Queue: 2 jobs
Job 1
Amino acid sequence: MKINYQPLIIALGFSLTFAQCQIAIASDLSRSQIYAKSRKITVLIAGSNSRFGSGVIVKKEGNVYTVVTNTHVINYKNVKHEVVTYNNQRYPINLKNIKTIPGFDLASVQFLSQNNYETATLGDSSNIGIPIVFKDYMVYSAGFIRSLSSNKPTYNFLLGKVLENTSEQQYKPQFHDEGYDLSHTSQIRDGMSGGPILNIKGELVGINGRVIYRGKFKELYKSLGIPINTIKTHLLPDTPTITTSKALGCSKNIFVNVANVCITYPSTSSSLSSF
């Protein structure tokens, strides 16, 4: 069964379109600059059960750092987790200081450090993938994957383009639930859940967490992320006083991921995995 997606088209005047493009070009960063920035803000979230995911440092208050990730990355009982920063420093995560948001695959964790770590610059995801001019909006994805040679986490950095942003759509395509409104072409792999999606200015515009496969051979169809505006609205305002809430478990037709091994394929030609 083919999944049909309703296109959202907004007509723009030429002068407005040209002005927006000029602004974007003026502040673009090079690929190497964005790579360097992403490496500093992206962390490995390692579990004592040998499973891992990724996260993004989004806030610093004194010596308290806040990291945004997916709920399914840290949704384990009796498992100790650590944040591992770019300089290979390891910091324990207290499970009692994890915040999750019901209905969204979003979580925040905190760690303490006297080191001065860079935090992500939060962008605006409202214009990504909506007007025609942004249909080929380029984004970078980062996170950790398991090395085939050493079987250890290794950093991965990818370029892709936005396919769709369904944040404002009342009727969403299949699998665009739990906040997953941003789809793009990057080849997201196991372990990259919670890792950043950055625009060409180096701003954080979302976090990754799912991929959709389709066809007989489960070919990658598209990757899904949660837009930064959703994260800012539902998760970040409360970061200074994080409280414990119940984590999301595996829901219908959803998870095959590195942090929570629940395998359920939908009865269609397309299937979805969370990493």
Job 2
Amino acid sequence: MASSMGDEMGATESGQAEAQAETRIQFDWDAVQAFLRADPGLIRSDQDLLADLGLRIHAANVVDFIPPALARRALAQAPDMAARRELEVIARANHAAQAQAHATVLEILESRNHADLARRLAEAARLRFNLTSAVVALERPGRTPSGWRPLAGGTTDALLGAEGLARMGEPVEADLVFGEAAEQVRSAAYVRIAMWSPARQGVLAFGSPDPDGFTADMGCELVAFLARVVERTAERWPVF
């Protein structure tokens, strides 16, 4: 009898312990749910926890279930995905810049004289590329067309080097090249130009208000293309 009673008491105590544990678990889970609902950002920002739970956050903050291994792999690839998105942004920006450059070419080709060419170029730089200025600068001796900047002989080589075709980055000799607009120029693109026969050297210059608008590691193909268009257009009208 004693044994039977002990068994019953043991079973009762065990049942009570299980019930208390279930109550405690239920209470704790209720508290966890309330806590997470109050601040859902905690779990959304915990990438390790999401991976362990096999969850993934979509761009629209929607959580879906995926295998934990796949979640970990997706998170591990996140930097690559970010890099791809950055490349896509750069590609779209380059495409937009090319489209604006082509529109600028059409405007330049409509120029009526040297002064009109300079005006159209400066206007395109401001309105199409958000630049401070665009300048056509020409070395002396010889007359400098209206709207162009005069440069002393040898200035082009001094800016670009004897064999240099272009320079991107720091706006060296900005006062000399951009004149009054120099104070607003934080970075620049300089491209060598040569026109007429005998050839007169000069620089096509673009100034940006952004220090990173033009950097030394940037390609110069687009500005060089515009420089060739400026050369061919300017040669329509002789300079005496």
